[in-house]
């Protein structure tokens, strides 16, 4: 059973999400919160698997709440996975939330099936990375001027193949697409991804994409 905490300042949104998720046998809504501060408190008390976190809220916005839950001070090993809820155009917060450790984001106009699927993906330890939307968000907020990828000392720990995989991840390719492009097995790609995250000290695939853009592996807009 996947326990979910819904954090959103709009009661109708919370009611709708609860109704959708509670209709699935493997998902239950463990609690709700109407602002970021209450969301952090509830998450620490209830210890949900996934927190559905709205971006814009009173008291403490979704970005600040995510930082509190996932930042260096949050040493609890079973920290929840945070899935941001957003309406695309207004949310410069989303890019910072990805950097803070959020496992991805979901548009509020997503279908009920997409919502349930997103919760399952994030709960499984994967990242919800919608390539087209994520790329637009990152390109919008990462400086377009290319940086020298060799300048980051951590990147030097990657093998040539791992750098290839990271570059393709940054471009939004799935494991299957990377495997096809490099003519290797998908299991080999998964192994490379795991090693990349470990070497770079990253939480998941979303943070790897942000890292790739920030360090010039892919130049925004190209």
Give me the secondary-structure topology.
Elements: E1 2-7, H1 11-22, E2 27-33, H2 36-46, E3 50-54, H3 62-70, E4 81-86, H4 93-100, E5 105-107, H5 112-123, H6 131-141, H7 160-170, H8 175-182, H9 186-200, H10 205-214
Helix pairs in contact: 2-3, 3-4, 7-9, 7-10, 8-9
Describe the structure.
By secondary structure, this protein is of the alpha/beta class. It has two domains: 2-128, Rossmann fold, CATH 3.40.50.2300; 145-214, Winged helix-like DNA-binding domain superfamily/Winged helix DNA-binding domain (Arc Repressor Mutant, subunit A, Orthogonal Bundle). It contains ten helices and five strands; from the N terminus they run βαβαβαβαβαααααα. The chain is globular. The termini are far apart.
């Amino acid at each position: 059973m996947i326990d979910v905490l819904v954090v959103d300042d709009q009661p109708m949104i919370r009611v709708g999400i609860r109704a959708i998720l509670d209709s699935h046998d493997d998902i239950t809504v463990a609690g709700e919160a109407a602002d970021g501060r209450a969301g952090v408190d509830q998450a620490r008390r209830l210890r949900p698997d996934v927190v559905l976190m709205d971006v814009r809220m009173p008291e403490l916005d979704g970005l600040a709440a995510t930082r509190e839950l996932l930042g260096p001070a949050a040493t609890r090993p079973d920290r929840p996975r945070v899935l941001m809820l957003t309406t695309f155009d207004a949310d410069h917060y989303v890019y910072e939330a990805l950097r803070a450790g959020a496992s991805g984001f979901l548009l509020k106009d997503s279908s009920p099936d997409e919502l349930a699927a997103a919760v399952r993906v994030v709960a499984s330890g994967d990242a919800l990375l919608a390539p087209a939307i994520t790329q637009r968000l990152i390109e919008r907020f990462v400086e377009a001027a290319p940086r020298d990828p060799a300048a980051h000392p951590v990147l030097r720990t990657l093998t040539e193949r791992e750098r290839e995989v990271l570059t393709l991840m940054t471009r939004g390719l799935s494991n299957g697409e990377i495997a096809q492009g490099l003519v290797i097995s998908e299991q080999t790609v998964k192994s490379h991804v795991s090693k990349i995250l470990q070497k770079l000290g990253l939480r998941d695939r979303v943070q790897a994409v942000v890292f790739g853009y920030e360090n010039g592996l892919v130049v925004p807009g190209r």
